[in-house]
Specification:
Residues 864-890 are annotated as: Disordered. With 890 residues, the protein is of the alpha+beta class. 17% of the residues lie in helices and 27% in strands.
């Protein structure tokens, strides 16, 4: 069989290897092979060598981005004891960093004979129809087919009589079979992000359903039969086209959340409008929240959508709409922009220098906004308003929105508005969706140069002129002019004119010399000019070399200006100095113009010293930042000043007995990775630990900062200077973890008289929370416990029944929820979401850290039993583009 599979000698070696390999691997009847790029090959190798053990596997996870998936599928029907099967895509990324769907399009018919299978996950694949064999699985309770291409479900879908959880989010479902009402024990139904236009009345027969998510569809109405769902707790109907809803929904006895946001509701029954658990924002019911200023008169009656931080899409119809994202980004879709209802997806991303290519002297002012679908052309221009961090100096700079075509970045015609005292917004209009960001660039003047010639001057300094004589070109070409004015203070013996950059859209030099006028350096006039000290420097487009071309051109002088002629466009700079080797001096000064003076800060939260805030702050912002944080944080004085380039990478490493979670996506070789952008927050807040026993004494450690990769636009000489062993270290700041003082016992029985039965949330493979973890979380919740409880899905009645003592309130709330949801496979993610929605990002980060640590330990156990990755191709080698995994979220 090994020869047929193309595994060769390596497979036979695995089959004849240590006998304990497969036995150890299958000790718990589990195989998690989706973490490996060659997981299917490993599975086939194990099946070849230890078939007897493999057929008794109960839990199996494989990636469907694997080239050997087809061969592996043929073996699945032999696994008669299989209880959980996960065949998911999304483990590989395309050239833009987006998740690639798996190649799975069907399942072998004999999979329907797996009588023990209760959990099946086929998410992120290429299914256009639901495999028929699924309907023959007699024990199936959980089915996930999200992120596929399903258009419809089988008519006899209701034959899955034991199904309790079904998710088909982000497909293309247009309707539902009537038999869906036969799923008598179904508790959780997620059909969000589809194309549903109506629901069958039979949906009202799902009497055990507790959560129903129909958001992000095209529903204009819902059946009255939904009022029969007496067990329903949460009903999500946001981002549809609803014009009315049944008043009977308000009478559902257990309903704790009814989300009707971002629909077309113009009238809502009073019973619903006055209910405390109903969310109606984003409907045309008299909203008074401000919208973008443009076209108010023509768009006054448009539907307005106000999206929350957890949403990532909305629907646009031919009627048009206004959309406001939680992060402050606005959209205006005029009537007729989309001919048919269109689903728009959005996310904001952390900029990555590997694909965000800033030009010389550019400053990044915003995160990256991605809008999908890419490439689709609207019938009319869509307007976008993007908030940005206002740069300090504007007199020689301008703000533009820049967009990525998939190949290169280009600047859009941009308007700038100031909404409030400190809020600035950049406005542009587009016909296509792509990636967008806001940058500050040198003011750019441009013109078309015809055969007859023309004149171009700088709006920053009108005395800077470029004259194009007649006959300068055979065909019209575009030219651009930028000026950088910077007074040189580093060397008193040098003076320089404004730095002039000229560029054109043609590779051919001009046919006749172009006449350029530059002001003389400060303090120099035609009367006191010493021509031997004046140098005209020419720099290449990358600013890496500066040549003295004084002897190659004819320089003319007036009282205030120097005039010369050239046929080639690039950088030009007039220097007045007695120094020799002026080209080398100019190169260093030019590099310094692109540097920022910064300080590092490392602060610890006063209430929880294990929570550390790290930030790289431009020198002029240090005092305001520290003043803002002083009430909640304490720490050492900022580091000494260092210099960094825009877009330069640096790392933070904890040392001397203090460590962090090494499994973070932004952790490289035990160091936290940062990218410095002068106008963005270069900040991370993390939890640190210490392997040292802190019960007896405090731990005095430190955090050190080191240089990383330099942007590609920086000259090679500057890049080489940053690579020396002494130049990598930037700064070190002390961190102190105090001696531990026991506040909560990890033994639940003597905890202020309270006791709770042992429980764990999650599982070993995906990471879990122990009872001790829950106790640690409980002590951090504090006065936010009621808000957290509501976001966890507890009803108002349940919260009101909890006692008066604060400690008991928190414990009762958290543990009662945990006991009710311990069997829910998504309980931990729901806890994380509830903490974020309650404004407790710090607790959410702690839970995610615990979960990641559990996953890391599980992967290490996999490696210990011989399933370590053997392929030389690492996941990190996959190129990432604009959809970089560094972060999304608005």
């Amino acid at each position: 069989m090994a020869e047929l599979l193309g595994l060769g000698d390596e497979c036979r070696e695995g089959a004849s290897g240590a006998p304990a390999l497969a036995a150890s691997c299958l000790a718990d009847n589990r195989l998690n092979l989706d973490v490996y790029p060659d997981g299917c090959r490993r599975f086939l190798r194990l099946f070849e060598g230890r078939q007897g053990e493999v057929v008794r596997v109960e839990f199996l996870r494989l990636s469907t981005n694997d080239r050997l998936l087809g061969t592996t599928l043929g073996i699945l029907p032999h696994l008669k004891h299989l209880k959980s099967l996960v065949l998911k895509g999304g483990h590989a990324r395309d050239e833009f960093g987006s998740c690639q769907h798996g190649s799975l399009t069907s399942l072998p018919p004999d999979v329907g004979n797996l009588s023990c299978l209760t959990h099946l996950d086929l998410s992120f694949n290429s299914l256009s129809t639901l495999p028929g064999c699924i309907l023959h699985l007699p024990s199936l309770r959980v089915l996930l087919v999200s992120h596929n291409s399903l258009v419809t479900l089988p008519e006899d879908f209701g034959s899955l009589s034991k199904l309790t959880f079904f998710s088909a989010m982000k497909n293309q479902l247009k309707d539902l079979p009537q038999s869906i009402g036969e799923l008598a024990v179904l508790q959780d139904l997620d059909l969000s992000e589809n194309a549903l236009e109506f629901l069958p009345e039979e949906v009202g027969n799902l009497h055990n359903c507790t959560e129903l998510d129909l958001s992000g569809n095209r529903l204009s109405s819902i059946p009255d039969s939904l009022a029969n769902l007496k067990s329903l707790r949460r009903l999500h109907l946001h981002s549809n086209l609803l014009v009315t809803v049944p008043a009977s929904l308000a009478s559902l006895p257990n309903l704790s959340r009814l989300d009707l946001q971002n629909n077309c509701l113009r009238a809502v029954p009073p019973e619903i409008q006055t209910s405390p658990f109903v969310h109606l924002r984003g409907n045309p019911l008299g909203e008074t929240e401000p919208s973008p200023q443009a076209d108010e008169s023509s768009a006054g009656g448009l539907r307005r959508l106000f999206l929350t931080s957890g949403e990532d899409s909305f629907t646009v119809t031919s009627e048009g709409c206004r959309v406001v994202l939680a992060c402050g980004i606005h959209f205006y879709f005029p009537p007729g922009a989309a001919s048919d209802p269109l689903r728009i997806y959005f996310r904001t991303l952390a900029p990555d220098p590997r694909w965000v290519k800033l030009r010389h002297h550019d400053v990044l002012l915003s995160r990256v906004l991605e809008l999908q679908p890419h490439g689709l052309k609207f019938q009319q221009e869509v307007q976008i308003w993007m908030p940005y961090a206002s740069p300090q100096t504007l007199h020689q700079r301008e703000v533009v929105v820049r967009t990525f075509s998939g190949q290169s970045w280009s600047d859009l015609r941009t308007g700038v508005e100031q909404k409030r005292k400190s809020k600035h917004v950049a406005h542009c209009s587009v016909l296509h969706f792509s990636w967008f960001l806001v940058v500050s660039r040198l003011v750019q003047n441009e013109c078309k140069v015809p055969t007859e010639g023309t004149l171009l001057f700088s709006s920053v300094d009108p005395s800077i002129k470029v004259t194009f004589p007649p006959g300068v070109t055979e065909e019209t070409r575009s030219v651009k002019l930028q000026v950088h004015i910077e007074e040189l203070t580093a060397d008193a013996g040098c003076r320089a004119s404004p730095l002039l950059c000229l560029s054109q859209d043609s590779l051919v030099d001009f046919l006749r010399p172009v006449r350029i006028q530059l002001p003389l350096p400060p303090g120099v006039t035609g009367l006191n000019l010493d021509r031997s000290r004046l140098h005209l420097l020419h720099g290449d487009l990358e600013g890496q070399t500066w040549d003295d071309i004084t002897s190659q051109v004819v320089l003319e002088f007036t009282h205030l200006y120097a005039v010369f002629e050239v046929t080639h466009f690039s950088w030009y700079w007039l220097w007045y100095t007695t120094k020799t080797y002026i080209g080398g001096i100019a190169k260093k000064v030019y590099e310094r113009l692109r540097m920022y003076q910064v300080n590092f800060i490392a602060l610890q939260r006063k209430k929880d010293p294990e929570q550390v805030l790290l930030q790289c702050v431009p020198k002029h912002k240090v005092d305001p930042v520290l003043k803002k944080l002083q009430d909640r944080y304490r720490g050492p004085e900022p580091s000494d000043m260092v210099e960094m380039f825009e877009g330069e990478q640096f790392f933070a490493a904890f040392e001397h007995g203090i460590s962090i979670d090494m499994d973070r996506p932004d952790c490289v070789d035990g160091r936290l990775s940062f990218i410095f952008y002068s106008h963005l927050k270069n900040m991370k807040e993390i939890y640190v630990t210490s392997p040292v026993d802190r019960k007896g004494q405090a731990v005095k450690g430190q955090v050190s900062f080191y240089r990383g990769a330099v942007p590609e636009s920086i000259s090679e000489d500057a890049r080489r200077r940053r690579k020396g062993p002494d130049s990598l270290w930037l700064a070190t700041l002390p961190i102190k973890l105090p001696r531990l003082k026991p506040r909560w016992s990890e033994n639940p029985s003597p905890l202020n008289g309270f006791s709770f039965p042992p429980l764990n949330l999650g599982n070993a493979e995906t990471g879990y929370l122990t009872q001790a973890n829950l106790l640690s979380i409980a002590r951090r919740v504090g006065a936010d416990w009621q808000t957290v409880g509501l976001h966890l899905g507890l009803s108002y009645q349940q919260i009101e029944r909890i006692g008066e003592d604060l400690n008991k309130q928190i414990l009762d709330m958290l543990f009662s929820w945990a006991q009710q949801n311990s069997e829910d496979p998504d309980c931990v993610s729901k806890l994380i979401t509830a903490m974020k929605e309650s404004g407790r990002q710090d607790i959410a980060d702690e839970v995610e850290t615990i979960i990641e640590l559990g996953r890391q330990k599980y992967r290490e156990s996999i490696r210990r039993v011989g399933l370590e990755q053997e392929s030389s191709t690492e996941d990190s080698a996959i190129p990432q583009g604009p959809a970089s995994s560094q972060g999304a979220g608005c």
